[in-house]
Amino acid sequence: MARAGLTADRVVAAAADLADEVGFENVSLSALARGFGVKDASLYSHVRNLQDLRTRVAFLAGGELVERIAVAVADRTGREALAAFADAYRDYALEHPGRYAATQIRVDQSLIAASPALRRTAEITYGLLRGYGLEEPDLTDAVRLLRSTFHGYCALESTGGFGAPRDVLRSWERAVEALHVALTHWPREAGSGAG
Q1: CA–CA–CA angle 179, 107, 122 (5° rounding)
Q2: What is the crossing angle of helices 50-73 and 78-95, to 10°?
Q3: What pTM, to 2 d.p., does this model score?
């Protein structure tokens, strides 16, 4: 029998917290059930299975991340918007490593299309890049550049992958500045509208 007050939202929030504590890949329905003091079977009235739980954590975390980014970039453009976006992204990744790992999983495209938070992520990211005068197909290429740079940096930093004595934050700031230069002088693909 499920403990009174147990809801899908509480289960997902607890899974996100657990992911930050033990790592997203170590979240299990058994560990979550133990945390609630219930049997594993009690969770199945709130989530279908472990994959469903992980997907829900990914959407929760994605919503939190985009909200943080939206607040950071509000009323900013160009270099300031890029730096605010990047810093909000990095801060979230470092503060919530399990949740952040959840945002990197592959999710069914039909679920993404139905998610207001993930649509908002695309709107904010594409809006930032349109401020640099980019249009398709350059927009997609630039999104991939930002995502791979931000994710790669955060993944390396979170595991202590930068061993040189140079201050990691200063290197981050320089990387963001380099991205600004790259976006400002983007090598536009022939046939794209910008000039």
Answers
A1: 40
A2: 140
A3: 0.90
